């Protein structure tokens, strides 16, 4: 016998099945359905009889009420969650698997709906039967088989069609649908490859029966993946970088799973699974194509760059359309329709006169600076006599002290006779005095009108008026301490001005006395006399 249980265990299992059937005949509203479920999933370590499976599927047919379908799903889930026997659990999973494959699609819809409310129906991660050593291997295969069925139901939610009943649709998918459905198919194939039997489970007759259905479905799954890979290769070199990276990972995973599927088929053939069935022949793609895909991924454009380029192209295309529309002549009007009147062109409204000069262009300041610089430049004349270049021993007397004591030449006597000492004539001296007196009176008037205005210094050398940056604030009364300081400064400036005028008057009086002295040297400048007197006093000599 393929099972690993003892005689007592078999007897206890048979007693449980008999008790359950007796209770269903008395207390169950769906006694026929309950009896069919118990007989199809009994403790006998052999595949269930086809008679019991057909009785069960009869209650799941389209002609039966939907309440029978819902009750059958709940009864199978309750029996699967309560049992600790590997044969009962495996037979229950086989009934569910065959129902998904053979029964009306309404069972699949009810099963998916029940799985949403009770997600633990196929969750057998903690299932184990420790009654024997063989039962450990059987329990491991039962857990993997439950994961495969759970993934099969989950793949239907993503694919929206049954991979076993409906033809493959992955060949005509777009990029978004392809990147969504291909991972679901690869995950389903991953769970299928985990169903490869190990140890004593390879020779169990119930496991071989379930494995034969799994091996047949692997052909349909791998066919759908191959179609998806062909579609992916066609679209790969047009993908953006993010999509290309995902597609490359899927392609590498498909190559790895194809090798594992070849090993899975070899194991099935060794235990005589799938006799008379033609398994797929897996061919490995060339390595050069994989290298080309990796090179494209490294140079693929980013999504932001592609979107930006598409936006630029769209803008340029719209501009071309707008430029071509005015140049196209209007279509001729048919004879039956009246000719539309020409549209009168409205002249543009006259712009208002710019009285403030706001629209005038700002002149270039660099050109104005160049013109002013060229106007103020000193250009030497060609006919002007050039000064002789002094030699090493000669020097030109340019100091004003030496110019004062230099003796005049003979031809200058006529000119100096009409001038005063120092080279000034009477008209020039009178004009300087009058100008100084006028400026002093004007300064006094300004001080009386505006005491805060700065009084310009007067004298023989007039200074240029300075620009006052605080002129706009002169109309505002200053603080008292500021007014006191300003008044002191005005008084000090006025005293300095009076002192300068007094000194000028003394100098003029000395010049008049010198001109009236008959013994004075008419060619001696008064300043020279003072310098000679100071030099004699320094050397200890005096004038006799």
TrEMBL record:
<feature type="compositionally biased region" description="Pro residues">
    <location>
        <begin position="327"/>
        <end position="341"/>
    </location>
</feature>
<dbReference type="InterPro" id="IPR048050">
    <property type="entry name" value="ANTH_N_plant"/>
</dbReference>
<keyword id="KW-0472">Membrane</keyword>
<dbReference type="GO" id="GO:0032050">
    <property type="term" value="F:clathrin heavy chain binding"/>
</dbReference>
<dbReference type="GO" id="GO:0006900">
    <property type="term" value="P:vesicle budding from membrane"/>
</dbReference>
<keyword id="KW-0968">Cytoplasmic vesicle</keyword>
<dbReference type="GO" id="GO:0000149">
    <property type="term" value="F:SNARE binding"/>
</dbReference>
<dbReference type="GO" id="GO:0072583">
    <property type="term" value="P:clathrin-dependent endocytosis"/>
</dbReference>
<dbReference type="Pfam" id="PF07651">
    <property type="entry name" value="ANTH"/>
</dbReference>
<protein>
    <recommendedName>
        <fullName>ENTH domain-containing protein</fullName>
    </recommendedName>
</protein>
<dbReference type="GO" id="GO:0048268">
    <property type="term" value="P:clathrin coat assembly"/>
</dbReference>
<dbReference type="GO" id="GO:0005546">
    <property type="term" value="F:phosphatidylinositol-4,5-bisphosphate binding"/>
</dbReference>
<dbReference type="InterPro" id="IPR013809">
    <property type="entry name" value="ENTH"/>
</dbReference>
<dbReference type="GO" id="GO:0030136">
    <property type="term" value="C:clathrin-coated vesicle"/>
</dbReference>
<dbReference type="InterPro" id="IPR014712">
    <property type="entry name" value="ANTH_dom_sf"/>
</dbReference>
<feature type="domain" description="ENTH">
    <location>
        <begin position="25"/>
        <end position="163"/>
    </location>
</feature>
<keyword id="KW-0333">Golgi apparatus</keyword>
<feature type="region of interest" description="Disordered">
    <location>
        <begin position="323"/>
        <end position="367"/>
    </location>
</feature>
<dbReference type="GO" id="GO:0005905">
    <property type="term" value="C:clathrin-coated pit"/>
</dbReference>
<keyword id="KW-0168">Coated pit</keyword>
<dbReference type="InterPro" id="IPR045192">
    <property type="entry name" value="AP180-like"/>
</dbReference>
<dbReference type="GO" id="GO:0005545">
    <property type="term" value="F:1-phosphatidylinositol binding"/>
</dbReference>
<dbReference type="GO" id="GO:0005794">
    <property type="term" value="C:Golgi apparatus"/>
</dbReference>
<keyword id="KW-0254">Endocytosis</keyword>
<dbReference type="InterPro" id="IPR011417">
    <property type="entry name" value="ANTH_dom"/>
</dbReference>
<dbReference type="InterPro" id="IPR008942">
    <property type="entry name" value="ENTH_VHS"/>
</dbReference>
């Amino acid at each position: 016998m393929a099972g690993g249980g003892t005689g007592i265990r078999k007897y206890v299992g048979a007693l449980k099945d008999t008790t359950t059937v007796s209770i269903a005949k008395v207390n169950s509203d769906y006694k026929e359905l309950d009896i069919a479920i118990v007989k199809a999933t009994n403790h006998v370590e052999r595949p269930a009889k086809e008679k019991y499976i057909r009785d069960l599927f009869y209650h799941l047919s389209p002609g039966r009420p939907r309440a029978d379908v819902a009750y059958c799903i709940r009864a199978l889930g309750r029996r699967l969650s309560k049992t600790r026997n590997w044969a009962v659990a495996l037979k229950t999973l086989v009934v569910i698997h065959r129902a998904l494959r053979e029964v009306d699609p309404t069972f699949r819809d009810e099963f998916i709906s029940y799985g949403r409310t009770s997600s633990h129906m196929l969750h057998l991660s903690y299932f184990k039967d420790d009654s024997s050593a063989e039962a450990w291997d059987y329990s491991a295969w039962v857990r993997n088989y439950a994961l495969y069925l759970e993934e099969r139901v989950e793949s239907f939610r993503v694919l929206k069609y049954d991979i076993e009943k409906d033809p493959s649709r992955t060949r005509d998918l777009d990029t978004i649908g392809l990147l969504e459905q291909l991972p679901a198919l690869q995950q389903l194939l991953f769970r299928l490859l985990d169903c490869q039997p190990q140890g004593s489970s390879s020779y169990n007759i119930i496991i071989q029966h379930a494995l034969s259905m799994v091996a047949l479905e692997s052909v349909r799954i791998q066919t759908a993946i191959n179609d998806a890979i062909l579609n992916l290769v066609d679209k790969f070199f047009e993908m953006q970088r993010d999509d290309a990276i995902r597609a490359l990972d899927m392609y590498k995973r498909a190559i790895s799973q194809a090798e594992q599927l070849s090993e899975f088929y070899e194991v099935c053939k060794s235990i005589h699974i799938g006799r008379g069935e033609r398994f797929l022949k897996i061919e490995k793609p060339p390595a050069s194509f994989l290298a080309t895909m990796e090179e494209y991924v490294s140079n693929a454009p980013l999504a932001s760059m592609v979107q930006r380029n598409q936006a630029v192209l769209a803008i340029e295309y719209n501009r071309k359309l707008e430029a071509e529309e005015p140049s196209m002549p209007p279509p001729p009007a048919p004879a039956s329709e009246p000719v539309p009147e020409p549209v009168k062109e409205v002249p543009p409204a006259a712009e208002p006169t710019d009285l403030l000069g706001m629209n005038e262009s700002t002149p270039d300041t660099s050109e104005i600076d160049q013109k002013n610089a060229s106007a103020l430049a000193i250009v030497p004349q060609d006919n002007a006599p050039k000064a002789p270049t002094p030699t090493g021993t000669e020097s030109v007397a340019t100091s004003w002290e030496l110019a004062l004591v230099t003796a005049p030449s003979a031809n200058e006597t006529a000119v100096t006779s009409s001038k005063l000492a120092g080279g000034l004539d009477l008209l020039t001296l009178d004009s300087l005095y009058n100008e100084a007196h006028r400026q002093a009176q004007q300064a006094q008037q300004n001080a009386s009108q505006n005491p805060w205005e700065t009084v310009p210094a007067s004298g023989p050398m007039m200074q240029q008026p300075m620009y006052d940056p605080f002129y706009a604030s002169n109309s505002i009364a200053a603080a008292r301490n500021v007014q006191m300081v300003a008044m002191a400064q005005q008084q000090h400036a006025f005293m300095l001005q009076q002192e300068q005028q007094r000194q000028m008057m003394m100098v003029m009086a000395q010049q008049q006395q010198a001109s009236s002295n008959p013994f004075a040297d008419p060619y001696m400048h008064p300043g020279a006399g003072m310098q000679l007197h100071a030099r004699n006093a320094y050397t200890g000599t005096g004038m006799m």
